[in-house]
Amino acid sequence: MDLHAQHCYLVGMKGTGMASLAVLLARMGCRVRGCDRDEVFFTDAILDQERLICDIGFSENLLESDTSLVIYSSAYPLDTPVLQAAKKRNLPLYSYPAFIAELTSLQDSYAVAGTHGKTTTCSVASHLLREASDSDFPFYAVYGSSQTGGQYFPYYGSECALFEACEYQDHFLGYDLRAVLVTSIEFDHPDYFRSLEDVKRSFEALIDRLKGGGIFIYCADDEGACGLSEYVATHRRDLTVLAYGFSAPPPFRIMQNGPDLYTLALLQDRPFVVRAKAKALVCDHIGALVLSLAMLLDRPKPRLYMQDQSLITDEILPTLAASLSRHLSSYTACTGRTEVLLQQDGVVYIDDYAHHPTEIRTSLDELHQRYPDHKVLVIFCPHTASRTLAFSHEFARALSRCDALIVQATYASARGDGPSGMDPAEVLACQASCISSYAKDDYTAMSLASLWLQERWLCITMGAGNNRSLCERIARQRRSLS
Length: 482
What we know:
GO molecular function: ligase activity
CATH topology of the largest domain: UDP-N-acetylmuramoyl-L-alanine:D-glutamate ligase
Number of helices: 15
Protein name: Mur ligase family protein
Helix content: 25-40%
CATH class of the largest domain: Alpha Beta
Number of strands: 20
Number of domains: 3
CATH superfamily of the largest domain: Mur-like, catalytic domain
Distance between the termini: 59 Å
Domain Mur ligase N-terminal catalytic: 9-105
Low-confidence stretches: 308-314
Strand order of the largest sheet: 7-8-6-9-10-11
Pfam family, one: Mur_ligase
Mean pLDDT: 90
Structural class: alpha/beta
InterPro entries: Mur-like_cat_sf, Mur_ligase_C, Mur_ligase_C_dom_sf, Mur_ligase_cen, Mur_ligase_N, MurCDEF_pg_biosynth
């Protein structure tokens, strides 16, 4: 596929993955335009900065006469008018995961998969490859966010690429991968997978599809990822296997030397800073380092890309690891992942995408360690009714670690799984053991938060819904009340 010659139209352009793809395609030389709802997302700022036009609505009249390719978010069904118009014109039509699969076939492709930590690991790896090579490493990356305070979705070439690979509906099984890093395997996506065993089988199928002589990287602290490593040992002996984590064997065993200070078994006399507190997040940062090593050493001439070429010696692994690890301290954060939005009147406002019980526990652990003297209010958007019902008890246990909880209403996804009868979110609010309440709309959530918040509190918008803007609105409302 010659991307330079394409005029691409993206339906659902404001989605995190779709916005990332829109910027990437523009930097690859495509003409890019798209459409979405008339609702403000954090990606609006990204698209505006890149001067990418996003039409409002999904009318069949939106496609220009020279549109050559249409890519759509899986949130929108094929009977959406603009997609119907594309079909009538026989335009190439790709879902987002199908187009990502197409991209993976164009160069050596590497991916991060797992129930949690995919986006953060991709973001940190992109940061390391960029900083350690002075932007000379010829790669691009597509993942569901961006690094805060940095350039959005940088494109440095297409010799190799890094992707966030999602197991939902087995999407990642269409990917053509040289290597994969697996952060974790737990039960998720209950509308598609019936059990944890189904999830495991999907990851095993991913391993079966890796290119011969490829690379498998996994977190040794995660039970599911360790189980997959056993499958690799039996069924894919041709793969290079690398384990990282606090319980991993050398060379990538993580050891803590002090607050924010870590090292690896192969770098015992060279500690480095990781700006994360929770062990799971530290693992994501180190996993990114191991993945970056693998991508660099998989190139024919890794020396070409490093700032200090004298570092590449006969002991290539520790010297290259030391070079990469220096840049972990300059990693800021991932947009929407424990991201501090503002501080006002003694309250710290934070946005966090955590929407699985394990992710929620990790995020709250991170924030409790960052702000040990603060109380925590979580405004949780539990996403769909089916998901909330499936994980209700686990959500309640995880969210009970906060001091106060506001649970927002669920909503129907493109799969039509909206609540019938009592909203499962209301049940969830009753199950939590902290102070909690159900908010049927944004106004109710804002009113409750404005009353409950005091100095030395964290106000966290959490979950997979678009509730990020509540932070600024609550801060404004509290200001008007004072």
